Amino acid sequence: MKKPKEKPTKLLWIDLEMTGLDAQNDFILEVAAEITDFDLKKVASYQARLKYPREQIAARMALSPFWAEMAASRDDFLDALATGKSPETVEQELADLVQKHFGTEPAILAGNSIHADRSFIRRWWPKLEAKLHYRMLDVTSLKVYMQGRYDLQYEKKEVHRAFDDIQESIAEWRFYIDWLSRRDEESLYSKEQ
Which are the catalytic amino acids? Predict the structure, then answer.
């Protein structure tokens, strides 16, 4: 007998700020997570900065053209390193959050270009990775389709802070879904006329 497929009930939106995009050598600096239902209503949220030796992080940031252009943000992140939490503490807190709100249901990771964040989770946070579903909801996929098919683009603020970026990802997903829903309603209405 075939096992019935479990219907997902929530999404785990995650955004990471890192020293670069190389999951093997770069470090996670900041994380924000928000759990929502499928109506995008917030169930829980979490955010933290991570603690590392300043010299270690500054050396990795120096290799990234992104951080060269973001000098104010770079300095803010470097100044906050001493007050962050250890990577192990953050991983455990995130795993506990997922356990509390998803239980035995594997958490579906959601966000913009979420595959990049997933590669860092896979590398640095195996306890969290073990609680994640293999499927992901990537806002970028819908963005590419909407730009190519309808020449429609959500205007992001590009703050590059984990919590703000999560809110932007959720708002962008909602923007495209609402647009498609209105289009379907207009199409249905015109067919009835």
Answer: 134
Is there a domain that residue 4 lies in? Answer: no
> What tokens were used for 97?
């959050």
CATH number of the domain to which 138 belongs: 3.30.420.10
Show the tokens assigned to 193: 């006329």
pTM value is 0.88
Q: Is residue 147 part of a domain?
A: yes
Give the CA distances from residue 181 to residues 125, 130, 168, 176, in Å, rounded to whole numbers and listed in that order. 37, 35, 20, 9
DSSP string, 146-187: HHHHH-----------HHHHHHHHHHHHHHHHHHHHHHHHHH
pLDDT in tens, 3-61: 556 789 999 999 999 998 999 999 999 999 999 999 999 999 999 999 988 888 888 88
Measure the CA–CA gap between 151 and 170, rounded to whole angstroms.
20
DSSP 8-state symbol, 63? T
Residue 17 and residue 77 in contact, taking contact as beta carbons nearer than 8 Å: yes
Structural domain includes residue 98: yes
